[in-house]
Amino acid sequence: MGRQGWVVWITGLPGSGKSVISRALQRKMLERGVASQILSSDELRRFVTPNPTYSQNERDVLYSTLRFVASLLARNGVNVIIDATGNLRRYRDEYRGAVERFAEVYVKCPQEICVEREKTRIDTLHAPRGIYEKASEGKASTVPGVGSPYEEPVRPEVVVESDKLAPDECAETIIREMQEFFRS
């Protein structure tokens, strides 16, 4: 069997720029001759829980499924970029032992900027619309960072501040800081 793929989990608050940065990272890696597959929790959720309630049990199932799919792909030589909030630290920490090459990238962004971005974005890239607004109206009690906790990573391999850097700059920072990791 060939070399295992790597798994990079892009985590951060909703609206922090995870999806855009994931796509920029995928594109920039492909420009370097390294292919990857993005696994989006929002996209996967449409199949695993088509009528989501965002309950704790439902999130446990979603992140367990995400871990299984990412691990399976990596074992078969596919490089994986996980685009998912993963609001609880344990979701992300469980991956550390699941694959040989795993890295956590924290997209750090002040919540007030995330709220503004979420209000104005046109393409949600599979994310639900208006979550912060619904949370402020009491219609969504499980939004990470508002009604549900968002536990910041303790020791992420990379931190990018998406309020200070453009998505392409964030992707370049990830690649620069993890050059050895990305060598296939």
State the main characteristics:
8 helices, single chain, globular, Rossmann fold, alpha/beta, 5 strands, 184 residues
Care to describe what's here?
- This protein has a 5-stranded parallel sheet with strand order 2-3-1-4-5, with helices on both faces.
- The protein has one domain: P-loop containing nucleotide triphosphate hydrolases (Rossmann fold, 3-Layer(aba) Sandwich), CATH 3.40.50.300.
- The longest helix is centred in the middle third of the chain and has 20 residues, at 56-75.
- Helix 1 (18-31) crosses helix 7.
- The chain has 184 residues and is an alpha/beta fold.
- The mean pLDDT is 88.
- It is built from 8 helices and 5 strands, in the order E-H-E-H-H-E-H-E-H-H-E-H-H.
- The chain is 42% helix and 14% strand.
Q: Biggest β-sheet, characterized?
A: 5 strands, parallel
Q: Order of strands across the biggest sheet?
A: 2-3-1-4-5
Order of helices and strands: EHEHHEHEHHEHH
In helices, the fraction of residues equals: 40-55%
What is the strand tally? 5
Q: What value does the average pLDDT take? A: 88
CATH superfamily: P-loop containing nucleotide triphosphate hydrolases
What coarse outline follows from CA principal-axis ratios?
globular
Straight-line distance between termini: 14 Å
- CATH domain class: Alpha Beta
Query: How many DSSP H or I helices?
Result: 8
Instruction: Look up the CATH topology.
Output: Rossmann fold
Gross CATH architecture: 3-Layer(aba) Sandwich
